[in-house]
TrEMBL record:
<dbReference type="InterPro" id="IPR032466">
    <property type="entry name" value="Metal_Hydrolase"/>
</dbReference>
<dbReference type="GO" id="GO:0016787">
    <property type="term" value="F:hydrolase activity"/>
</dbReference>
<keyword id="KW-0456">Lyase</keyword>
<dbReference type="Pfam" id="PF04909">
    <property type="entry name" value="Amidohydro_2"/>
</dbReference>
<dbReference type="InterPro" id="IPR006680">
    <property type="entry name" value="Amidohydro-rel"/>
</dbReference>
<protein>
    <submittedName>
        <fullName>Amidohydrolase</fullName>
    </submittedName>
</protein>
<feature type="domain" description="Amidohydrolase-related">
    <location>
        <begin position="24"/>
        <end position="294"/>
    </location>
</feature>
<dbReference type="InterPro" id="IPR032465">
    <property type="entry name" value="ACMSD"/>
</dbReference>
<dbReference type="GO" id="GO:0016831">
    <property type="term" value="F:carboxy-lyase activity"/>
</dbReference>
<dbReference type="GO" id="GO:0019748">
    <property type="term" value="P:secondary metabolic process"/>
</dbReference>
<dbReference type="GO" id="GO:0005737">
    <property type="term" value="C:cytoplasm"/>
</dbReference>
Length: 295
């Protein structure tokens, strides 16, 4: 299946318009084929964690998806995987290491789950060159302050390797979602580099407060400001000036390929905020380039 030329055209014009030769996308998903198909089947079912119809725009074979991101001018991206049960994370980490080895523009990604083996396989992933981790508090249904993760968070804080953490209560609340558990985690590890997925939707203000309090906390724009998100969990207009204040710690994320609209719309949604070209350049490239050392 080929990519829509209008989609590529808009993204190219967007980059040209703001003077940005390339994009860095910190929130994209590449998984073993069997896992990805189960994820897509869940979205198709409009299950309780999604709550509504969620068509997958880029339901393509793996290499087509890689080529699609490259056609958009995405210089670096992630392979965000996440474990939802024990004895799963280490296997996923083996797969992502292999994927990163054969896909040089993918930032080597890993994950973990609260289990006794977690410190061992996280250390192995770091030693193998993992540059970003992903955990999904909603899907994994675990408390990020679980004692089984104490050594893991300590390692990540010491290494300065960020974790993309889906911890907001959108699109459906879980037992451990919301700012409370993350706030408790940061009190224990104030230098822990977290990237709050979806800007913490719908608890936007509370997660912005955490970013104000902890310098290592960043937020990604995954699905935020799009028509799809604004229909149910709109970003509060009164908080828009805070996006400028925190301009150096906001990173572009798309949730590609699992989005119910085009990649172009995700960028359009950011541009129509009217926060300026320099803000867009920071969000869509410069901040992630600095974080991951992509000179």
């Amino acid at each position: 299946m080929s990519v829509d030329e209008d989609d590529i055209g808009y993204v190219t014009e967007f980059r040209d318009r703001i003077g940005l030769p390339e994009i860095i996308d910190v929130h994209t998903h590449f998984m073993p084929d069997s896992v990805m198909r189960k994820v897509w089947a869940y979205f198709d079912s409009a299950g309780p964690l999604t709550r509504r119809e969620w068509p997958i725009t880029y339901r393509h074979e793996e290499q087509v998806r890689v080529k699609t991101l490259r056609a958009f001018g995405v210089r670096a991206f992630t392979a965000l995987v996440y474990a939802h049960k024990p004895d799963m994370a280490a296997w996923l980490n083996d797969w992502t290491a292999q994927f990163a080895a054969r896909t040089p523009d993918c930032l080597h990604t890993a994950t973990f789950y609260p289990e006794p083996s977690a410190p061992g396989y996280v250390r192995s992933a770091l030693d193998a060159g993992a540059r970003v981790f992903k955990v999904h508090i909603q899907v994994g249904d675990f408390d990020p302050t679980d004692p089984l993760l104490t050594d893991v968070w300590g390692m990540l804080a010491d290494a300065g390797v960020p974790t993309v953490i889906h911890c907001g209560s959108g699109p459906a609340a879980g037992r451990f979602t919301g700012p409370g558990p993350v706030s408790a985690l940061l009190r224990r590890f104030p230098n822990l580099p977290l990237i709050i997925a979806h800007m913490g939707s719908p608890e936007y203000v509370e997660f912005l407060d955490l970013a104000d309090r902890y310098d290592a906390v960043r937020l990604d724009t995954t699905m935020n400001f799009t028509d799809f998100f604004e229909a149910e969990d709109p970003f509060p207009r009164a908080a828009l000036p805070r996006l400028t204040t925190l301009a150096d710690r906001i990173l572009f994320g798309s949730d590609f390929p699992n989005i119910p609209y085009t990649y172009a719309h995700a960028l359009h949604a950011l541009e129509r905020l009217g926060l300026g070209d320099e803000w867009l350049r920071k969000v869509c490239h410069h901040n992630a380039a600095q974080l991951f050392g992509l000179a």
